# Entry
Amino acid sequence: MYMVQMGRPESTIERQERPMRHSTRVVIVGAGGAGSATAVAVARAAPEVEVIVLGAEGRAPYNRTTVNKGLLSGAVDDAGVALPGMDGLGIDWRTATVARSLHAAGPAVELADGRWLGADVVVLATGAPPRGPCPPPSRRACPTGS
# Structure
């Protein structure tokens, strides 16, 4: 869950030194298909932009469909589920990094450890929790996943 901070956490925002070639920082929250595709698109279109991807999972982005259809059946190994085209673009993949809140006016993202990561642009690409199928309307409402 993300919340917008109303105050400005100026003193705690991590303003890391940016490499000379970076004038803009894009922070993408979510390393699934949408976040990864966004990161690759930005890195290819604007190599001068610093791209940081925050992903809660402790591994590189992977193809979730291949996990269901290939890895679990034994048709592919762990390396076979990796998303292609992720290397060599200068993207800073921060796995096992959880975003706790968003300060929209900053803009900045608060990490689970309490540090703030400043950005020029923040993209939220977090997906949604899975839901079961909805029963017929006459029985009960659909589960919300929360």
Remarks:
- Residues 1-11, 16-20 have pLDDT under 50 and may be disordered.
- The longest helix spans residues 33-45.
- The two ends are 11 Å apart (CA to CA).
